[in-house]
Each structure stands twice: as C-alpha cells, then as structure tokens.
Amino acid sequence: MKRKRDSAYAAATTSTCVADSDSMSGAEFEMFLSFRGPDTRLSFTDYLYHSLVRAGIRAFKDDKEIRKGEKIGGELLCAIESSKIYMPIFSRNYASSTWCLHELTLMVECSS
C-alpha cells in the first residue's frame, strides 16, 4: 500500500501522471531501475536492462542524462509509482546524487 505524502506533493505527482498517461498508454512497469548514470549507464545497468527485456520483463530505465539541479520529471515519477518492483543499483557515487536519493526516497515511500 502506498503511503500518503503531503497533499501538495501528491497533487503535483498525480496531475503529472494523469497528464502523461497518454504518452505512457497507462502502462505499468514490472521493474524500475534506479542508477547513477555516469557510473553504470553504459555497463552493468545497460546489460541488466536488456537482459530483463529479453526475459519479457517490462522494465523502466531512464535513458536521458539528468543534469544537476533539475527536478525529477513527471514521467520518472509516474514510472516509479506504477512499478511493481524497485531496483536501486548502488554504485560508488550513487549516494552523491541528490536525484538518485530522491528516487530512492520515493521508492521507499511507494513500497510502504
């Protein structure tokens, strides 16, 4: 069961998910991969993602580079909230990314 977050945050997330639902076709992901791009994007994470897809698992992997200081986009929030399984890929610099930590926080909140 998902925990309620503060109403302003929840409203922003919900409205973003509703607005993006056409582009996502209401799809629900089986697995959300959270990773530090420069550390594992072109190695372990890429290999894992393609292995999951070959096995028939619908996985979400953000293919866009995330710039420091950007807010987490609606598509990413919706992907986290609509995923059944969350897989943070901890690497040497994972915790140095505020983006990764925000994703991790949302994953914990959604799994509670």
Tally of structural domains: 1
**Beta-strand residue percentage:** 5-15%
Mean pLDDT over the residues: 79
The poorly predicted ranges are 1-15, 18-26
Tell me the total number of β-strands: 3
Structural class category: mainly alpha
Radius of gyration: 14 Å
Summarize the helix and strand pattern as letters: HEHHEHEH
CATH class: Alpha Beta
Helix share, percent: 40-55%
**Largest sheet, if any?**
3 strands, parallel
- What is the CATH architecture term? 3-Layer(aba) Sandwich
Which fold does the CATH topology refer to? Answer: Rossmann fold
The total count of helices amounts to 5
Write a brief caption for the model.
This protein has 112 residues and is mainly α.
Write the layout of secondary structure elements.
Blueprint: H1 7-24, E1 31-35, H2 37-40, H3 44-54, E2 59-60, H4 74-81, E3 85-89, H5 98-111
Parallel strand pairs: 1-2, 1-3
Helix pairs in contact: 1-4
Q: Which terms would index this structure?
A:
Rossmann fold, disordered N terminus, 11% strand, mainly alpha, 112 residues, 3 strands, 49% helix, three-stranded parallel β-sheet
Q: What does this entry look like structurally?
A:
This protein is mainly α. The protein has one domain: Rossmann fold, CATH 3.40.50. Helix content is 49%, strand content 11%. A 3-stranded parallel beta sheet has the order 2-1-3, with helices on both faces. α1 crosses α4. The protein starts with 6 loop residues before the first helix and ends with a helix.
